[in-house]
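Hi all, long-time lurker, first post. I run a small reading group and we've been trying to get comfortable going from sequence to structure in the token notation. Rather than ask abstract questions, I figured I'd post a concrete chain and ask someone more experienced to write out its structure so we can walk through it together at our next meeting. Sequence below, copied exactly:
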Amino acid sequence: MKISGYHKEIGDITTLLMNWNDIDKYDKVYVSKVFDYSIVPIDLDTYGNVEYGGTGFFYDDAKPLPEEIEHHKPDYNLYVPWVNEMISKGRKRKEFEYYLDYSIGFTTRGCFRKCSFCVNKKYDKVQLHSPIEEFLDENKKYICLLDDNILGHPEWKEIINKLKLTNKYFQFKQGMDERLITEEKAKILSNCKYKGDYIFAFDNINDKELIKNKLSIWKKHCNKTTKLYVLCAYDRENKYDMEFWEQDIINTFERIKILMQYQCLPYIMRFKNYELSPFRGIYINLASWCNQPNFFKKKSFREWCIADAERKPLKTCSTLQYMNEFEQKYPEIAKKYFDLKYENYKGIDIISNCVTM
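-- Answer (accepted) --
Happy to help. Here is the structure in token form:
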């Protein structure tokens, strides 16, 4: 959208291409790829008019956009013809709300964590990127921020206050760093016009005590739905042996249990290597259970697996099979975690154990 906005300003005509046909007929074609598994069916280097970039092509060596494009207001009309076509074919408008209702941008870029699984490791700190007015469309109802680690910037409070001045609901879509929560941050964030769920992350079981402490602080101030990304099937030592897979299932369930205790929702993020796991089916079941809050809030893992099997034809449903096979092999793990229920932790006082850090 920034590329399109820039070219329109200098007098060019832009269009969104939805296929690979006839790209040689255009003066300039830009191709962006976010994920490395996205398929590009042609050799882009054979076209002199094509420029391509993004993490899907170059991972963390991807070049930034030129300054005049990076800091140009996005062309929010670029996707509208395609969206209208999809809606006319029966798709629901709700599916396209980010195309239609949101101003989208970064107020900061970068993160100092350098997590091994993350594409964003080329920065050493969080730095200011764009003023809000650079990407704000006054006609849009909401604002979506894509900042990598907003709470890691010294001016986080000033940025939040500027967002408040827009009088629009906003959200940090990429999630925020729960480990950086303080009483002040919790109080200010929980009193914003915040759109949707507050989203944080709980990627490492070794952060258990820190996360519990920060959630205690957070829940003192916020009673709105809070969701945490839960990364699983990622081996930081790159062994991926049976010992890792067994322990990773335990660690994933343990983080889910902790989030239940704090009445937060887990969102399972499966690293791609889950496909190689002997417990592939359990990872699928966990994601299906946790990532549907209406089921997660009402049913234990066991109850969800049984209910899912009951609503599907027996021959095509593997849900119960995955659960049963795992329980037969690891009865102690199943006994500890399979019957945990979110609703059983309602009303339990865990906040009083908070220690301010």
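A couple of things your group might point at:
The two ends are 41 Å apart (CA to CA).
Residues 55 and 61 are 8 Å apart (CA to CA).
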